[in-house]
Recover the amino acids of this structure.
């Protein structure tokens, strides 16, 4: 869902990556606009690249703090262009998108249960030279009895331009009620290229022959080793708020990627 904030925006709090360029930008912008404590700010301004933006979205999840990113990193797909002048006016005109993360529940070979949230994707990857063997269940129905592959991932619309795109998965408009289920280097069935699922789906991926073919699971930056099974579904009770300039919002960025190839 995309909206514009109704409340007045006057107080900013700046967060940065560890690069000298980002920290210099923070110091300069703080001198121009002030730098309020995070709890008192109307908007969090993130200065860095996509890695910092994901970290900031996780950090402020469910705190009702909109995040406006400006690129002081390398890729910057999740960021607005960096400019020092008129920052408050830009933020007041920005469009806010509500992002719901995925919730991963992973069970390892010892039976221990781990939970984590992912804004981009939940991925499973083989840990050794041997291909993984996986069984895929969607909403209690087994859809693939055996998938032999390097791995598999479930991506949100926000994450469809990241690892999912590199694995030849589909790009999803940001407000589409869909998830991408994408194999990574599938060997059998060789022609299977994944699926588009309703975002209310519950995906369970079981590891077959896990003792012989170990698999890890990752929710964004959190990794669990030697998993036995992974359950993935959208967490409608959690959200992050991301702001984009109206002439270069998330939908426009994804459409640009769709027609780039």
């Amino acid at each position: 869902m995309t909206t514009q904030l109704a409340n007045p925006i006057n107080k900013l709090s700046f967060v940065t990556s560890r690069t000298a360029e980002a920290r210099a930008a923070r110091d300069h912008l703080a001198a121009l606009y002030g730098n309020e404590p995070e709890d008192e700010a109307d908007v969090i301004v993130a200065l860095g690249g996509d890695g910092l933006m994901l970290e900031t979205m996780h950090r402020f999840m469910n705190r009702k703090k909109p995040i406006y990113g400006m690129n002081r990193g390398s890729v910057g797909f999740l960021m607005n262009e960096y400019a020092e002048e008129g920052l408050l006016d830009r933020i007041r005109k920005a469009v806010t998108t509500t992002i719901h993360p995925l919730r991963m529940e992973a069970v390892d070979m010892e039976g221990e249960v781990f939970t984590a949230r992912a804004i981009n994707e939940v991925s499973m990857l083989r840990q050794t030279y041997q291909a993984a063997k996986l069984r895929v269940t969607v909403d209690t129905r087994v859809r693939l009895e055996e998938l032999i592959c390097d791995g598999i991932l479930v991506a949100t619309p926000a994450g469809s331009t990241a690892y999912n795109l590199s694995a030849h998965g589909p790009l999803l408009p940001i407000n589409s009620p869909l998830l991408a289920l994408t194999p990574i280097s599938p060997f059998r069935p060789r022609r299977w290229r994944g699926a588009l699922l309703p975002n209310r789906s519950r995906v369970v991926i079981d590891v077959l022959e896990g003792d012989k073919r170990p698999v890890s699971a990752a929710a964004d930056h959190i990794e669990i080793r030697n998993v036995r099974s992974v359950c993935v579904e959208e967490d409608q009770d959690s959200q992050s708020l991301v702001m984009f300039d109206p002439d270069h919002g998330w939908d426009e960025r994804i459409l640009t990627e769709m027609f780039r190839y």
Notes: The chain has five helices and 18 strands. The helical segments are 20-33, 50-59, 87-93, 163-166, 250-258. Residues 15 and 46 are 5 Å apart (CA to CA). The mean pLDDT is 93.
